[in-house]
Amino acid sequence: MQLLSKPISGHSWLQKNKTIALSSLLAAAAAAAYQTQRTKRKSTNDGVLEETTQDVFRRHKKIFPVSDLNAKVGVNNEFKRQLKAIATIIFPHWHTKEALLLILHSVFLILRTYLSVVVARLDGRIVRDLVNGDGKEFLKGLGYWFAIAIPATYTNSMIRYLQSKLSIGFRTRLTRYVHDLYLDPQRTFYKVINLDGRIQGADQYITTDVAKFCDTLASLYSNLAKPMLDTLIFNYQLVKSIGVVGTFGLTVNYFVTARLLRAVTPSFGKLAAIEAKLEGDFRAAHTRLITNAEEIAFYNGANLEHSILDRAYTRLIKHINTIYKIRISYNMFEDFLIKYAWSAFGLGLCSIPVFLPDLAGQRSVAAAAASEGSDENVKVGSHTRGFITNKRLLISLADAGGRMMYSYKELAELAGYTSRVYGLLSILHALHASEYDGPEDARRFALTNIKGKVELGIDGIKFDKVPIVAPSSGPDNVGELLVNDLTLDVQPGEHLMVTGPNGVGKTAVARVIASLWPVFEGKLSKPYDKDIFYIPQRPYLSLGTLRDQVIYPHSYEDMKKSGRTDKELMEILKVVHLAYIPDREGGWETQKEWKDVFSGGEKQRVGMARLFYHHPKYAVLDECTSAVSTDVEGLMYAHAKDMGITLLTISHRPALFKYHKHILRLTGNQGEWEMEAIGTKEQKQSIGKEMHSLEAKLKEVESLKARLIAIDSELSLKV
Ligand SMILES: Nc1ncnc2c1ncn2[C@@H]1O[C@H](COP(=O)(O)OP(=O)(O)OP(=O)(O)O)[C@@H](O)[C@H]1O
After folding, report:
1. What residue's CA is closest to ligand 1, atom 6?
2. Are residues 653 and 715 in the same domain?
3. d(Cα 86, Cα 63) in Å, to the nearest integer?
4. Distance (Å, whole) CA 577 – CA 566
5. Are the CB atoms for 200 and 424 separated by under 8 Å?
6. Does 504 contact ligand 1 (Cβ within 6 A)?
7. Residue 508 CA, ligand 1 centroid: distance in Å
8. Are 616 and 533 in contact (CB under 8 A)?
9. Number of independent structural domains in the chain
10. Beta 461-470 vs 523-526: how paired, if at all?
11. What does the alpha-carbon distance between residue 284 and residue 203 come to, in Å, rounded to a whole number?
């Protein structure tokens, strides 16, 4: 009791001043660190970080093996392993800003615990002076009370602030890493969405799940580290007042509580992971509606979409309700144990120094009273001070213990978010290395059995016995053969047209050239990516200005760097007959949702404008002029050829034959195909036949017109 009975002396006042000085110093250090990071422009708070190198990805591949998706989610060894793996991303080394934040955070946590002890002692002293009727000491105590309030409140705010900064720091590092892996040169995002079914709704993973993981991790540190520290320090203080027996009792109490809570805690981790998935599904359903609003409105599909959204929401809410129901009994048990059972136990402990002073290892109350004067008031005051101080320490201890127990629940939830974030990272790593879903499979066209070769940097596009296969992932990962051992060679100027019925695999050929689909067998030789430009069937308009639409995928910076001007862009728009657009839309800088502004034909013409802007050596044009009027289409094809672009056109339109030298016909008959040169005798004969049949039809038009006039006059006579 010596520590507690000692009045706050000049020495402890000095300590308090030191505390204030220390807090200011820490704040200054934090501000300085922040400033340094800002000036380096590599701050995780600005969201600006250096790109993750391929070397880092190679090293990390080993620590991110794909886990068994059916493994139990919870606080277990797998959770520890996953968290350790993610820690290599959020703490790449010890001289990061996050490490500094963590140290500062820890220092403030220690400071807060220390201040709590000081407050407990001061509280006891003030109440004692009040009971003793010592006005002067009472006022002095109040003075100290206000003095301690300043560093105490500052410390609390700093803890919250540093926790948020830590969370943002983690999030920025993780998001940057995921973006670098997702949008890598191997086009992993395409594989995630189209070739591999393990990640559904990658957007939900990258936005919400990563944020929740970071928030929970940052708060868990303070929710776990602080109560642990508090428990240690308060226990130390209490040993002095309630004795070793009391402290032993406290320890047993903790142990029993922890075991009990662990036994009754439901698997919050798994529940959190399912909730995150259902949230993702609900959000994805809304995103679909936004993306396809016009089509849905035309079809009058609101009712059906309504029911789809309702179903997604109901699934989510049912699950959340289940969690709430599970929580009722768990929370009741938790509250009973931590609030009521612990309070009763705490009051019992507080009574030890009063009823059993020898057990508490202290001088008896009578002896203490005798040494401070035999006056009854002094005796009561001494009791009161001891009780108030112990009670406050016990309340803090109970609070700390309670939070430690509560954080088990948080830990379980963190396990859920960790499994989602780890799942995302491990699958991105696998796809980055072209390792697809499904068991090892030696069957032909299995995604786990890719044997073809791709050679880059060749002037020409050359297929050497390459089967075109629609890939399939999952348990039955054998793809479907569309075109059998394709062999062709498109040399500069040897424009090729690919034709054939719907669904035969025309676009599939383009996908293989673009390396979106794998070369299962044979060899594909092609120029570097920068020399081939693809215009897909569905026009894509990006976020940004009108200029950004024409120069896509260049940014304005890229455009300026390459010395291009708006005047040149205007010339290009003239070629595609869109010269009126900048004036109509209010200039190059205008920002709009362009997909809703342009008509179908205009969108396709913007696609051709991009081709002329980038001026590649080769262009793969996939039905990209189907909505453009024939005359403008012809002009654009002629212009592309004049620019020296070698064309590989996918189309059904015979009108486009004349701009090409070869034709690849995909028949759809068991992957058969044929190549022919345009302008051969057979070709001319077939065009001749088509002309004869058209002329015959034109003759019919005249007789049909005459018949129509006759019917009209008959009808008017009758009327
Ligand atoms: N991601 C995919 N995974 C598996 N199969 C696919 C995938 N995308 C397309 N397919 C299938 O591959 C086949 C060929 O498709 P492709 O888009 O190449 O047809 P197409 O000849 O260009 O047809 P159209 O003239 O209608 O554009 C189709 O049966 C299609 O369903």
Report:
1. 470
2. no
3. 9
4. 16
5. no
6. yes
7. 6
8. yes
9. 3
10. antiparallel
11. 8
What global pTM score does this model have? 0.73
DSSP string covering 333-370: HHHIIIIIIHHHHHHHHHTHHHH-TTTTTS--HHHHHH
Cα–Cα distance between 626 and 642 in angstroms, integer?
21
User: Would residue 457 be called left, alpha or beta, if left means φ above 0 and alpha means ψ between -120 and 50 degrees?
Assistant: left
Determine if ligand 1 sits within 6 Å of the CB of residue 507. yes
Residues 144, 244, single domain; the answer is yes
In CATH, what number is assigned to the domain containing residue 179? 1.20.1560.10
More confident residue, 302 or 44: 302
Ligand 1 centroid – CA 676 distance (Å):
23
- Is residue 503 within 6 Å of ligand 1 at its C-beta? yes
- Give CA–CA dist 27/6, Å, rounded: 32
Q: Is the CB of 478 under 6 A from ligand 1?
A: no
Query: In sequence order, what DSSP letters do the residues of 241-270 get, joined into one string?
Result: HHHHHHHHHHHHHHHHHHHHHHHH---HHH
Residue 356 sits in the same domain as residue 478: no
One-letter amino acid identity for 556?
Answer: Y
- CA 566 to chain centroid, in Å, comes to 36
The answer to the question of residue 62 being in a domain is: no
pLDDT band at 379 (very low <50, low <70, confident <90, very high): low
Residues 6+ apart with CB under 8 A from 374: none
pLDDT digits (tens, 9 = 90+) for 203-235: 889 998 999 999 999 988 878 877 787 777 777
Q: What is the pLDDT of residues 687-697, one digit of tens each?
A: 666 667 777 78
| Helix/strand/coil (H/E/C) assignment for every residue in 386-445 | HHHHHHHHHHHHHHHHHHHHHHHHHHHHHHHHHHHHHHHHHHHHHHHCCCCCCCCCCCCC
Residues 492 and 515 placed together within one structural domain of the fold: yes
CA angle 3, 343, 391 (to 5 degrees): 20
The rounded distance, in Å, linking the Cα atoms of 525 and 277 is: 42
Residue 186 Cβ inside 6 Å of ligand 1? The answer reads no
Q: How many angstroms is it from 482 CA to the middle of ligand 1?
A: 9
Q: What region, left, alpha or beta, does residue 612 occupy, with left being phi > 0 and alpha being psi -120 to 50 degrees?
A: alpha
- Closest atom of ligand 1 to CA, residue 195: 1
**What CATH number is associated with residue 593?**
3.40.50.300
- State in Å: Cα 466 to ligand 1 middle: 17
Query: In angstroms, rounded to a whole number, what is the distance separating the alpha carbons of residues 33 and 620?
Result: 51
Is residue 649 included in any domain, yes or no? yes
Using pLDDT thresholds of 50, 70 and 90, give the confidence band for residue 399: confident
Dist. CA 509 → ligand 1 center (Å): 10
520 and 627 in a common domain: yes
Please state at what angle helix 210-264 crosses helix 97-132, rounded to 10 degrees. 50
- pLDDT tens for 23-38 read 444 444 444 443 444 3
Measure the CA–CA gap between 247 and 236, rounded to whole angstroms.
9
The interface predicted TM-score (ipTM) is: 0.94
Within this chain, do residues 462 and 428 fall inside the same structural domain, yes or no?
Answer: no
Whether 384 and 409 map to the same domain: the answer is yes
Smallest CA separation from ligand 1 atom 10, residue: 470
Domain boundary among 402, 432, 462: 432
Q: Is residue 564 part of a domain?
A: yes
Q: How confident is the model at residue 582 (pLDDT cuts 50, 70, 90)?
A: very high
Q: Say yes or no: CB of residue 505 within 6 Å of ligand 1.
A: yes
**Which of 384, 399, 432 lies at the terminal end of a domain, its last residue?**
432
Nearest CA to ligand 1 atom 16: 505
Ligand 1 within 6 A of CB of 2: no
The residue segments making up the domain with residue 393 are 14-35+93-432
> How confident is residue 369, by pLDDT bands cut at 50, 70 and 90?
very low
Same domain, 415 and 332: yes
Please report whether residue 628 resides in a domain: yes
473 C-beta closer than 6 A to ligand 1: no
- Do residues 1 and 353 make contact, with C-beta atoms less than 8 angstroms apart? yes
* Minimum CA distance residue for ligand 1 atom 1: 194
